[in-house]
Design a protein that fits this description.
Layout (H helix, E strand, L loop, with lengths): L1 E3 L2 E3 L10 H7 L9 E5 L5 H7 L4 E6 L2 H13 L5 E4 L11 E7 L27 H10 L3 E12 L4 H10 L2 E10 L4 E9 L1
Parallel strand pairs: 3-4, 3-6, 4-5, 6-7
Antiparallel strand pairs: 1-2, 7-9, 8-9
Length: about 200
């Protein structure tokens, strides 16, 4: 069990264990009471559950079926109201729109020879340049945001943060680095982007 912000969370097998990047996002969440929130990559559900304590509605999705099950258990433990769905990126929310979208992106650059082909891999495998999932996420973003919507995402310097900022600005977002933390071989940042 993990204790965090006065709550308890199960750590489940085959599910990304909350780490520094998770807590960096959790500590910098900008959730309003009126928000309909989407979290992509729910993992244990920690971010969605924290968001649900403030937001009007929270939907959380994950491509890992073990994560969906784990997040559901953690919502029960913490008496949180979160709609948890299985699927890839925006697929489970087809034509729905949100005020805030959260994503701790899979940002590690991985060569094919390094792949282990397990359920957990989706949490960190960013493809050869670390941008495979990030780029797909950005492409689907606008059609799932309400006017004036916001995005908060976690990314590493290993996967070109400047490119992400540039792509978001091209879509009409104002982007800022909300927080960052330096690790041995990378800097992990929380980007906050407001659609203007």
């Amino acid at each position: 069990m993990l204790n965090y912000q006065g709550m308890e969370f199960l750590i489940c097998e085959n599910v990304y264990e909350p780490a520094e990047d998770t807590f960096l996002l959790a500590d910098n969440l900008l959730v309003k009471k009126s928000d309909n929130v989407l979290e992509i990559g729910a993992g244990t559900g920690i971010i969605a559950i924290i968001a649900s304590k403030k937001a009007k509605k929270v939907v959380a999705v994950d491509i890992n079926r073990y994560a969906v099950e784990c997040a559901r258990k953690n919502t029960e433990i913490n008496l949180a109201c979160v709609d948890i769905r299985w699927g890839d990126l925006f697929d489970p929310v087809d034509d729905e729109k949100f005020d805030l979208i959260l994503f701790n992106t899979p940002y590690l650059p991985i060569e094919e020879a390094e792949l282990v082909d397990d359920d957990l891999e989706a949490a960190w495998n960013g493809g050869k340049d670390g941008r495979f999932v990030i780029n797909r996420f950005i492409e689907g973003l606008i059609e799932h945001l309400n006017p004036g919507g916001r995005v908060q995402l976690v990314q590493s310097s290993l996967s070109n943060v400047e490119e992400t900022i540039g792509r978001l600005m091209e879509l009409g977002f104002e982007v800022s680095v909300t927080d960052s933390e330096r690790f041995f071989f990378e800097e992990v940042v929380v980007l906050t982007a407001d659609l203007v």
